[in-house]
Every structure is written in C-alpha cells, then in structure tokens.
Specification:
alpha+beta; 5 helices; about 20% strand; globular; binds FE2/S2 (inorganic) cluster
Length: about 130
C-alpha cells in the first residue's frame, strides 16, 4: 500500500485556497515546535459564514494537504460548523494519514480555531 493516499498527493501537488486574504477579519497562525512547521489561515467572515478562507503553510506535504482539505471543508460554511472541525475529520477526508503524520492535521485544526478566535475578539471590539 502506498504511504500516502491519492487525495493527500492531489492536495499536496495542487493545494486549494493557497494565499492570503488582504481584508481578512480572522487570522490564525500556529506552529509545531518539534518539526518547526508553520501554518497561517486567513478568513473573511460575513454574517457568521466563512465566505473565503486561504492559507500559507511552511511545512511538510501532509501539512499542506491538511490545510488545503481543511479550507475546502469549511469554505462557505457557518462559523459554528467550522468550530467543530477536528483534525480527525480532516485526515479522514484525505482518506487517512500515516500515524506519525497525524500531528500535521492537528496544525490545520489549530490554525482554523486560532483564526476563529481572532475573528471573535475583533467582533467584540467593534
Ligand atoms: Fe510537521 Fe508535518 S512534519 S506538520
């Protein structure tokens, strides 16, 4: 069996939603101290819907594939749904990740939560 699923390879080679959103109203950056990989999520949220989401990931192929899949899973969805997205759901949507690469999908969950936290704190201030 191949180490990585076809979906992982597809999202690694052709990542969706790469880049930044200039007028993002929720930005989250997280890193993994062990491997040094960094993931940054930008969100444009209006009426509690994630209208747009983009990412920049300086990391391994699994982290790139996880970010790409995670953005696809939450784009156009309500904030309440994005809040529930787990790294397990991201990995499952990718048809699995090797056990020692599961931490890469954790970065995607954490980056999304960080961006949503940022959005919430901006909302409170306005
Ligand atoms: Fe660090 Fe994948 S090896 S996120």
């Amino acid at each position: 069996m191949a180490l990585y699923s076809e979906k992982v390879m597809d999202h690694f080679r052709n990542p969706r939603n790469v880049g930044i959103i200039e007028d993002a109203n929720g930005i989250g950056e997280v890193g993994n101290a062990k491997c040094g990989d960094i993931m940054k999520m930008y969100m444009k949220i209006e009426d509690d819907i994630i209208q747009d989401v983009k990412f920049e990931t300086f990391g391994c192929g699994s982290a790139i594939a996880s970010s790409s899949m995670a953005t696809e899973l939450i784009k156009g969805k309500p904030v309440s749904e994005a809040m529930k997205l787990t790294n397990k759901a991201v990995a499952e949507a990718l048809d699995g990740l090797p056990a020692y690469k599961m931490h890469c999908s954790v970065l995607a969950e954490e980056a999304i939560q960080a961006a949503l936290d940022d959005w919430r704190s901006r909302e409170k201030q306005s």
